[in-house]
């Protein structure tokens, strides 16, 4: 007779995500996962596969919870530039927050740690980045069509610049004790939209 799971796989996945996010992939051992999740190694393997598969599932869960909100923020009807400015300022505030300093962004952390040598992680990073850059681009195209953005501006190039800024804010916010560094950079980038 098959045994039923004695744990909630979804709760375990969220717990693994939290641990990987805080410590990184390489610094998290299977023993750490067993202790943190409170479930046996065999149950982890049976439910999620290897540590690497668990990490990729954690990335997928992170993307499910983070990426959709950005699209909603940037696709509201009406003027587009205020939404773009609000998103950049939100990213800056998050990067400078105590949680941002503690953990950074899970995708940005993965990009730095795994993407250069892990094709599966790199694909997920790229997909996540597209979910940031594409809505920014769409909002800037809309802003230009509505007369909010000068005609001589390139919405694609601006979206890419803002995307790279957002990633940089996350890195600097995690490593810096000076929140003004992040806020000042964000405001200077936003000045390019005028």
Automatic annotation (TrEMBL):
The keyword DNA-binding applies. Residues 29-48 bind DNA. Residues 6-66 form the HTH tetR-type domain. The keyword Transcription applies. Keywords: DNA-binding, Transcription, Transcription regulation. This is TetR/AcrR family transcriptional regulator. It comes from Streptomyces coeruleorubidus.
């Amino acid at each position: 007779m098959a045994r039923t799971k004695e744990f909630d796989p979804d709760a375990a996945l969220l717990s693994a995500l939290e641990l990987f996010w805080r410590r990184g992939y390489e610094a998290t051992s299977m023993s750490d996962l067993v202790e943190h999740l409170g479930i046996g190694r065999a149950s982890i393997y049976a439910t999620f596969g290897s540590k690497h598969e668990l990490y990729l599932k954690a990335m997928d869960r992170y993307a499910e919870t983070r990426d959709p909100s950005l699209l909603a923020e940037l696709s509201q009807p009406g003027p587009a530039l205020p939404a773009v400015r609000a998103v950049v300022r939100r990213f800056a505030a998050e990067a400078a927050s105590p949680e941002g300093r503690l953990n950074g962004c899970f995708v940005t952390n993965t990009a730095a740690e795994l993407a250069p040598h892990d094709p599966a992680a790199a694909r997920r990073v790229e997909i996540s980045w597209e979910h940031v850059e594409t809505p920014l681009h769409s909002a800037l195209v809309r802003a230009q069509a509505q007369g909010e953005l000068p005609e001589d501006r390139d919405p694609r190039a601006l979206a890419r610049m803002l995307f790279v800024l957002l990633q940089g804010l996350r890195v600097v916010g995690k490593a810096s004790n000076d929140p003004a560094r992040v806020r000042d950079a964000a405001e200077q980038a936003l000045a390019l939209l005028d």
